[in-house]
Specification:
mainly alpha, 214 residues
Length: 214
């Protein structure tokens, strides 16, 4: 597998949608920052208010993260398929809220449980479930758990390839530190499109995938 060629193709596909995807990434990052944030310093909030705020934010993160992840993944698929990317696509997860929410919860639980066995099993689990949102998006009649099962089957024999592909972005990510993270507005869409292209590439081999999940 030539990772440079996969990335080059993703770069070319992304060119017409850079600005839209960058704005979507900014919004997505801001939302994640809010949902993952704390209630602030003790001098600004009373302890009871801080605890209440953190509980509300945690509940919001639990319910909303799946829908936003769904939408962001769908944006990557649209760019990979050379479709016109629209900002509203980012919110498509709310049209399939229940399945997106369940998938988010199941992914978190299973990755956490595997992580209890040590870090490596947790990483392997994350790699195994990494394509579950794409599968959920493209198969509206399956459950979240079945999307995970199909992802595990799809990634069988491809986990190390995907891991290495994502490692090729380390240099870009380190470079973004020099821009105080601003560069990530362009790097993140690049990574998401590359990931979607990888999904398209391995899912184009149905005899290796579907036979194992049926």
């Amino acid at each position: 597998m030539v990772y440079r060629e996969i990335r080059a193709e993703a770069w070319k596909k992304l060119a017409p949608s850079w600005s839209v995807f960058a704005v979507i990434t900014l919004v997505y990052g801001t939302i994640n920052g809010i949902l993952g944030g704390s209630g602030g310093s003790s001098y600004a909030w009373s302890q009871s208010v801080t605890i209440t705020f953190n509980v509300i934010v945690s509940i919001a993160a639990l319910f909303l993260s799946g829908a936003f992840k769904y939408g962001y993944s769908k944006c990557g698929l649209h760019v990979s398929d050379k479709k016109t990317l629209k900002f509203k696509t980012f919110f498509d997860g709310f049209e399939d809220f229940t399945r997106a929410f369940i998938l988010s919860v199941l992914n978190a639980i299973f990755i956490f449980l595997w992580s209890l066995l040590l870090i490596i099993p947790g990483i392997i689990a994350a790699l195994s479930y990494s394509m579950s949102y794409y599968i959920l998006i493209e198969n509206p009649n399956i459950s979240a758990s079945e999307a995970m099962e199909r992802s595990v089957a799809l990634m069988d024999g491809h986990k190390f390839q995907y891991f290495c592909l994502m490692l090729t972005f380390v240099g870009w990510i380190l470079l973004s530190i020099l821009t105080f993270g601003i560069l990530m507005l362009w790097i993140r869409p690049y990574m998401e499109t590359t990931k979607a292209d990888f999904y398209r590439m391995i899912s184009a081999q149905p005899e290796e995938v579907q036979a194992e999940v049926k």
